Amino acid sequence: MKKLRLLFYYTATGIALGFLINMLLFFSVAYEMMVGLGLVMYIFTAFGAMVALSKQRLDWKYSFFIIEGLAVFLALVTGRLQQFLYITKETLVITTPVSQVRPYFLAFVIVVNLVNIYIIMTLKKYQKEYTKEERKALKESELKLKDLREEIDASELEQIKKKRKLGRIIALAGIGIFMICYFTIDSLHTGLNEAFATISRLDTQIVIEYLRSFGKLAVVVSFTLMVLQSIAAPIPAFLITLSNAAIFGWWQGAILSWSSAMAGAALCFFIARVLGRDAVEKLTSKGAMESVDVFFEKYGKFAILICRLLPFVSFDFVSYAAGLTNMRFWAFFIATGLGQLPATIVYSYVGGTLTGGAQKLFVGLLTLFALSIMIGIAKKIYNDKQNAKKSIDKAS
Length: 396
Fold this sequence. Notes:
It is a multi-pass membrane protein. This protein has helices spanning 2-25, 29-35, 37-54, 63-78, 83-92, 98-121, 132-141, 154-184, 186-199, 204-212, 218-231, 238-248, 250-283, 286-309, 315-323, 329-350, 356-395. By secondary structure, the protein is mainly α.
């Protein structure tokens, strides 16, 4: 009975979250077309069910009502209450007129709210309720992420700092040489400006023609462009991926796109690691940075994988963020490679034909997979804390 209650409450919360996300999607036609209203509902309903199956108690007891309230408030403010009915129609794939859907929708909302109110009111019968003081005491006794860290030897720490210093010198020298070449060599200056101007037009056909104009050097130019856009240009990488597939064939294009994207990610990671780490350490507290470091050291590969699978998360931002932590390079590199592979293969194989339902299904499956990994990370962190606490208790 306890598990059924959790399943109902968290699944209902997932449905409410789906409605809220859909209401936000109405502000962006591009994202709405890319994902689809019904698919968003399926993703977050499944997400809510997965959360329920992974938990043993109802911790966020007002989450459903808060999310539902936000969705209703947003609909009222924007005058889009009617959109709830359109979302329901698309989710259930029905052609019934909106006027006929309304009574069933209202009945569903009332029943779900009444059941969830009952679940909250009878919560004490199924799990222990803590007072504010007890919750505070539990939080203080709970291990922090930084407590899970293995002690680093002083000599090892000194070696890490020396490597960073050497890396900083190499990075600054490289940037300096590049800037000198850019401003002194006219052909390089003109060529790069033309390349970015071409890609910035966001037209795949123009990019294809531009790359083909280089003949046999198109491979080198494409590789270079992918790396440069990773570092500095806010340009969608899939434009180059689609162009590579059209010029070189789908599997050769996929290899070129994947390898060049990996090189760009590695370079972003390296730049952030050698240039930004010291600044971050000065701007943040030691405890906070240690917790972030431990998270990325222990679970960073899963977090990177999640971000790479989600098509609306910037790859460049993730690479720079990972570089600011103590996450190991190879863990980052492998997770990046695995996360980028599905999208690269699909975009290369089907190219610009990935539209409509196929595109939405692909994006939806990647998102659901990423969310399931997220739940797994949260559960693993909880288990690691519990195991560490038991070890400490046994030792004392």
